[in-house]
Amino acid sequence: MTLLSSQDSSERGAFFKERNIDVRTSDYSTESVLQILNETNATVFISFNNSLDKTFVTLHTNFLEACQKSKNCKRFIPSEFAGNIDDFPLLPSFYTKSRVPFRRILEQQSDVEWTIFNNGWFMDYFLTQDKTYLPAIPNEFPVDPNGWKACIRGTGDQVQSFTCARDVAKALTMLLSAPKWEPTIYVTGQWATFNEMVHIMEQFFDRPMEKTYRSEEQTAHDASLPPTPENAEAVYLASVEEMMITGSGACPREKTLRQRDKFFEHLTFATLEDLLTQAGRSTRASGDRLMLSGVGKGQASRAFVKVLLSSRVETDSGAARWPSSDVYHTDGSPRRGTYIATCGS
């Protein structure tokens, strides 16, 4: 496993060294990434880079071109990790200037196999800060477990998908062994509404949660604000809220369940109650907590890399690690080499 970062990771050297992770610094240019791909004999490139707008397109085009020119790296998972893009391809709306145009670029080439991986909302946002690496985003995610309050968008009755980050890491690990991918692949640990998830929190901890509501009209107002620097945060948050109100944060159930049988047969996905129970038996210092945000920003992207790089990923059929030789080409021959991941923004 090789990690690409645009930042110096020397202060985190022990974490990576303990896990035999090769960390390379890159400016994310095609030339820089290509050199690393060839030096490491990489076969799969996974991006967690969550840059916005044209920067996302530029960087991911660089990654794709590097894969196309590389000796062996002919599989690519770009950074998406959102909801139902089959039925809602333009949501969240801030994806329209980043993910959407890059999807068109992927579709126009056939040199590199790719898939868009989505998991809905990260369930780990329901954990308190002492239980997760995930940075708290109380203004973005409706439930703030640290302040024990919730701000429900709309009615809160739209079904959503929730998946814990550890299960996302397991699923990505298992996906590398699939002989052929589909253009979009989904995972979900639990389908539920935000109202239902708040109720589960209240029942589990046996205490009521303070609730406020933000109307669809308020979200629509912020989404229509002029695109000025002072409005940037409000417009961004409104685009995330659109996923909650429209239900586009729910992965398509039939397809997700079919793909669970196809790609993740021996993986048991955690529910919120499972996650809360597991968290109650652990502490932040345990070292094996695996957290990420797919919709969040750079800090959260770097946090999710710790998910993927943690020492063991358990499935029902036994322990699985990032593989070194058990991933296969579409013709059945083994893919040998390393796996590249990028983080940051």
**Contiguous helical run count:** 11
Give the low-confidence spans.
Answer: 284-298, 311-337
Count the E strands: 18
Radius of gyration: 19 Å
Coarse structural class: alpha/beta
Helix content: 25-40%
Average of per-residue pLDDT values:
86
In whole angstroms, the N-to-C terminal distance is 20 Å
Strand order of the largest sheet: 2-1-18-3-4-5
| Inertia-based shape | globular
- Beta fraction: 15-25%
Describe it for me?
- There is one protein chain.
- This protein is an alpha/beta fold and 345 residues long.
- The protein contains 11 helices and 18 strands.
- The strands form 6 sheets. A 6-stranded parallel beta sheet has the order 2-1-18-3-4-5, covered by helices on one side. A 3-stranded mixed beta sheet has the order 7-10-12.
- Helix 2 (30-40) crosses helix 3 (53-69), helix 3 (53-69) packs parallel to helix 4 (99-107) and helix 7 (216-223) packs across helix 8 (232-246).
- The longest helix has 17 residues, at 53-69.
- It is globular, with a radius of gyration of 19 Å.
Give keywords.
alpha/beta; 345 residues; 11 helices
Q: What is the secondary structure topology, with strand pairs?
A:
Layout: E1 2-5, H1 13-18, E2 22-25, H2 30-40, E3 42-47, H3 53-69, E4 75-77, H4 99-107, E5 113-114, E6 116-118, E7 121-122, E8 143-144, E9 149-153, E10 160-163, H5 165-175, E11 184-186, E12 190-192, H6 194-205, E13 210-214, H7 216-223, H8 232-246, H9 253-263, H10 272-280, H11 298-309, E14 313-315, E15 318-320, E16 327-328, E17 334-335, E18 338-342
Parallel strand pairs: 1-2, 1-18, 3-4, 3-18, 4-5, 6-11, 7-10, 9-13
Antiparallel strand pairs: 8-9, 10-12, 14-15, 16-17
Helix pairs in contact: 2-3, 3-4, 7-8
